[in-house]
Structure formats: structure tokens, C-alpha cells
Amino acid sequence: MPSPKIQSLMMNSPLTITSILRHAESNNPGGRIVSVTADHPRHETTYAQAFSRARQLADALVRRGMQAGDRVGTLAWNDFRHFEAYYGVSCAGGVLHTVNPRLFPEQLAYIINHAADRWLLADPVFLPLLEKLAPELKTLEGIFLLTGAAVPESAIAGLQNYESLLAEGDADFEWPELDEHAPSSMCYTSGTTGNPKGVVYSHRSTVLHSMASCLPDMLNLSVRDTVLPVVPMFHVNAWGLPYSVPMVGGSLVFPGPKMADGETLQRLIVGENVTMTAGVPTVWLALLQYLEASGKDLGRLNRTVVGGAACPRAIMQAFRDRYGVDTLHAWGMTEMSPLGTVNQPLPHQQDLSGDAWLDLKAKQGRAVFGVEMKIVDDDDNELPRDGKAFGALKVRGPWVCSAYYERPESDAHDADGWFSTGDVATIDADGFMQITDRTKDVIKSGGEWISSIELENIAVGHPDVLEAAVIGVPHPKWDERPLLVVVRRAGAAVSPAELLGLYEGRVAKFCIPDAVEFVEAIPHTATGKIQKMELRSQFAGYRLADG
Ligand code: AMP
537 alpha carbon to ligand 1 midpoint, in Å? Predict the structure, then answer.
């Protein structure tokens, strides 16, 4: 006879960002938040103070009419005010839309309009940019400058500073009870072709991602950590650190606009007793160069998380051999909140040294619980985990996006819910994934995406160009830089300088290709598309003049 019916009897406490805030407030109210900002060379606050101000911000926005699901944009570096907005907006039921100020102005206007942001919180340094863009920003009702300083004369109607906005709100504001599936924040990615695509995170996905990232074999976060996120807060929520660090009660150090400044980073690391940092490889090169030139050290720093691009071996070696710092090579995506894998050794790998150690470290790591991962061939058959077979990398899990915001035409998801990452990888018998290439047709330079298609369209606009392809080639500082490969029309003699001149004023400076190579032909697939992977392998050993 079957047993009588039974139900679980556990509490259904929603997994919301507010629960992280409440936990930090009750258990670690004195947790430190240190920032560099435009108006403070060093600002220190605590979780208790920051969350009290987050309540004021929430109340001020609600009084202005913010309703559940309304978008509030930020165009800001990493500091305490941006941190307050992370909680003030999301815990009040709004959706925090972090905007990447490094995007080209047309893309900025596109994403702010596409997300239908109602208000924008912006660092004062972006005011000239916003004044130019303002006529295009159709949905914005107000812009607030993230400063306590007086607001300069501006063509933007009703421009106010953030501190005066906060003064409109009450620190007694009561957080609403939210559904854990409610949207909490969003971030656009330009890591695919066409217009940037919006990824919408939920309270639940954010909490689960934070819990997983604290695990020992992920980032191993604890109350004893002081963490310096050098990854921007506009790039996938600074890899979730503004949530995961308060979750464990650790301290946060924010570098403000001084993101790639080796001197500031070293001063913060030593002066604030930082134990962990996180950022793209380009930043660590700047730091290591500064250390070498100055002879300074890294104090109590014991680990640095490197992701966003493959971590060069020289960085991992220098951190370990000269400064006793472990590198945690990690892989993820905007679409994945972002953490997918982290490279932490298995028991039998702990004493590896020399090349064996570097070979292991070069891999992007093993999947954390919550991320299912597989590699497939062109017919979507799963490939073996033997470290040799390589194929398209697919993922699935509670902090992986299930669709892009208002982009029903996207074919990134299959019928079984797997998301195609656009990366090509191997997975070895121990579960270590290694990226070997990309199917997505974009270039990543210093952590920022460059659209190859946009660059190709400009090149083929020249009458002497028969066909053009842009690929990323390795660069020691920027990881990758664009190379323009051109087939000239018969008898044409257009020069590299003339072709590169086409880009001036038409794309952001960092997108302009570094070099031009002329070839007889560009490889194509059976359906006539350019075979970028083949072209990349043809130029595999290519060295740029400054590379
Ligand atoms: P984003 O959404 O801008 O964070 O970019 C995600 C993409 O960056 C991934 O799909 C990869 O192509 C690349 N990426 C991230 N981390 C790594 C890594 N550790 N090694 C190589 N590529 C990486």
C-alpha cells in the first residue's frame, strides 16, 4: 500500500537580494566599504550606513513614482554610491540597469531606450556625453549625478545630484516583500553580432549565484576577506561580488574611476589589507608592470580571480613566483551571471609545478554545482570528455539566461533549454574545461567587445576592396586586437593606411584594427559564409608590430 500523502514542511523564504541585505545588516553591520570617487580620494562607510542610504534612495524613487519592474539605469564606476543603487533599486522592486560607459554613443542610446530606463544615475565625468545623447534618450525622466558636489550648469532639464535625491527619501522605508522570480537587474552584452542584447537577472538567480560563488572551490569567500573588485560594476554586476561579499560579511574596496591604474590598485591592496581581487587580464598586466617598476609588493593579497578572457601564463607565474598570490582562472558570461567555471586543483594536482602546473592553470576550470555544461559537434551530438575533442560549449542552470530581453528572434537556446555560449572548448576526464576558440564573430580587447561585422562593412565600402574579414589576433596587453584581412580588386593598390583611415570618427578608437593584411582569397563555408575559425587558424602565429 502506498504511504499516505506527504508535503515538505520547510519554510518558503524567498531568495531575494533583500535577504542578503538583511543578513548583512543583522550579522555584519560594521563590514567596511572603502571607495575612491571623483569627490572623495578615500571614502569609508559600513554596510549599516550604506543600506540605510539605500532605503533613502528607494524611498526617493518610489515617491517619484517608481513601480515594480521599472528600470533605473546607472552609468558609473565602482564605488559606494553605485553599491547603494544595487540594493536601493532592486530591493524596492525596481530593475537596476547597469550601462557600460565604454560603449559607442549610438549603442548607449540604443540600450537605454530599449530597456526603457526611467531614471539614470551617472558619474559626473559622463555629463558631457549625456548632454550630447539627451535628445535621443526617449524614456528618461531624470538624470542624477553620483556626487555630493554642486551640479554644473547644464542643458539637461532638472539635473540634480544624487545626494539631493537621497535627501528626498526616508531611511525608515520598509522594503516590500518580493517574489524571488521578480527581475532585479539587467545588463546588455555586445558579445554577439547585431545590437547589444539584454540579460535580465532575477532575485533568485542572483542569490543562488552568490551562494555558489562563495564555495571553497569557487571563490572561497569568507568574512575574513577584503575584496577589491576591479571588474566594473557595469559588467555582469562586477561578477556578483557586490552580493556575494556582503552575503559572507567580508569587506569591499572599490577603485572608482582608477580601474586600470597600477599605482592606485597597489595602494588600495596594501593600504586596505585586500585579500582577493578580480578582473580581466589587461588590468593585472598594468598592476604587475607597476610592481616591477616600483619594487612594491601586494601585502596580504592571497588570490586574484582572472576571467573575461584567457589568462596569459606569464601573469599566473608572476603572481605566484614574485608575490605569492594564487590566480583563480575563471570563465563565465553576462548571460551566466557570470560564473560558470573556476580553476581549483583536485587533490592529486595540488603539488604540481613547472609546466604541468601552468598547463593545468591555463584551463578555465570545472563547473560549479548549478551549471550543467557539455560540448557538442555540428549535429548537436555530445562529445567525449577526453580533453581532445572540441566542440560548441552549451550550458544550462538557474543563473543562466533563458532568453534575451525583447529579442524573440534569438536562436541561442535549443529545445531542451541549453544555451549556446558561442565558445568552443574541450572538457577533460577530470571535468576541466578549456576554451579553444569562438564561434561568435566578435573580438574581445581588454575585456570589451569589438564587432567584426561592423568593421568589415566599413572596409567593403571602399571601392578597391573585394572582400574583407576581421579577426582577433593575440596581443600581450589587450589579449586580442582586430586584424583586417582584405582581398583587393584585381589591379587595385589601396594601402593599409588608407583603409585604416576609413575608421576614423566612425567607430570608437579602441575598435580600429591594428593592422591590415592582403590575401588572395578568404576561406568560405559551403553556404558562402566566411570561415572565421579557419581564418583565425591561418593567422594563428601572427604578430602585430607592438605585439
Ligand atoms: P562577457 O559576456 O562580456 O562577460 O563575455 C563572455 C565571453 O568572454 C565568454 O563567452 C568567452 O568568450 C570570454 N571569456 C570569459 N572568460 C574567459 C576565459 N577565462 N578564457 C577565455 N575566454 C573567456
Answer: 19
